[in-house]
Amino acid sequence: MSFLIPLEMPTIAAALRDARSASAEARWVAAMALGTADHGHWEAAAAALRELLQDPVDGVRAQALEGLLEQMRSGQPLSADIITAALADTAPSVRCVAVDALIMTSACPAQDLAPYLGDPDPSVRAAAASGLGSLRAIEASDRIAVLLKDTDGYVTDRAAMALAELGDPRGEAVLCQALSADAATACEAARALGELGRPSSLPALEKAQERRLLSTEAKAMIAAAAVRCSGNQPHHRGLSVLKELLGSIWQSKRLAALSTLVRLPVVGIAAHVARLMDQGREIEASAAIETLVAISTIDADAATAELERRIGKLSPPLDQELNATLTQWGAGP
Description:
The chain is mainly α. It has helices at 12-18, 24-34, 42-52, 58-73, 80-87, 92-105, 109-113, 122-134, 141-146, 153-165, 172-178, 183-196, 202-208, 216-229, 237-246, 251-263, 270-274, 282-295, 300-308, 316-329.
């Protein structure tokens, strides 16, 4: 059962009332609102959310756990017993949220999450694989690799991406195939291949660059991944694609390219990124600073030089941001 997110969230007082409504949708919205309760309302909100964990509707239980998880992100405690019970829930949607909670709380993620790689539901298997990848649980790589032969395509894609996060190339073939999937999947697959940086991925990435009707984000990520897999060759076609996007007349394309380079920086693009700091558009200039910080992880001299060149030439807020960045690096004035 799915529900529509309301245009306006109820107040905490209304949510506490609706948590016992006869309407499942009202209870679901209440759980969502209670997850945003401030510290002063936390005790009452947490009590209501714990009660909703026993709701007969799967979606309400999942949202109640999401609400408790949201409060945990704000520093509120979440009982291990609640997570344990949710991991045993009959509903996959609840178990998926419980896996997220385990990712945030486990001291031994490879040991605690690995059993859910064999969950009967593919969404839970995929969540467990993704979590182990994001936690860099290298010791779980063999268990994750088993999912490369999963019967569910989404699971195999997530397993391959998780392995790439661990620096394990065993999912390369799956990732190359995923480049022909929907734009969002192709984007994530390209990023994973770029992180691996294997020349053997280059033909598939270059073929993917020929796809039509790709989103700007996917186009940029495939280009960046191709540059990485080429060994950051200065004349690779992917670099030209990124430069073209950074110089586009459309702000959405420029911002998409910057966002891509934050996630997957490449060598040879720092000067083109830095030019966006000179146009008087503060949103782009701030994004360009963030992008150059990312680029500095693989091309430190070029990124630092571009930033230092602009000290005192930007608006006061941006100049302050720039100086703070350089000071953090030990390269400031």
